[in-house]
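queue> pop job 88
queue> type: inverse folding (structure -> sequence)
queue> payload:
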């Protein structure tokens, strides 16, 4: 897997409209995205990926999915399913509603890269420091 750095853009309009309709009083993950933005950038993980080869899933999203997975005590499969099916997750991750998601094995591979590159602690400290 290689890294093709991407910037975390705005939440897609269709995702935002559906999320606001589904959660008219708001929801924790919507407030998190609105308050803090995407939390991570691909550049924070650039040293973990080569510059050539098959493109990887956006590391900033995988880091965020990993935090959500831990928070909700989900298996890799359930976390991948949540990223594919839950509106609040799609909003937080800045995904289109029709985004097909990723295979659950991607999460294990990403964690292996974090541990191998000794970036897991840095990512967790960054996320903790972003929370007001």
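queue> result:
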């Amino acid at each position: 897997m290689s890294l093709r750095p991407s910037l975390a853009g705005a939440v897609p309009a269709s995702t935002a409209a559906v999320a606001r309709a589904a959660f008219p009083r708001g929801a924790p993950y919507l407030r998190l995205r609105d308050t803090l933005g995407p939390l991570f950038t691909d550049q924070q993980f650039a040293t973990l990926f080569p510059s050539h080869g098959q493109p990887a899933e956006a590391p900033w999203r995988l880091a965020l999915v990993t935090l959500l997975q831990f928070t909700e005590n989900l298996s890799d499969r359930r976390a991948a399913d949540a990223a594919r099916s839950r509106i609040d997750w799609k909003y937080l991750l800045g995904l289109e509603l029709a985004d097909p998601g990723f295979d659950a094995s991607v999460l294990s591979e990403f964690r292996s890269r974090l541990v191998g590159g000794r970036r897991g602690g840095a990512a967790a400290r960054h996320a903790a420091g972003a929370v007001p």
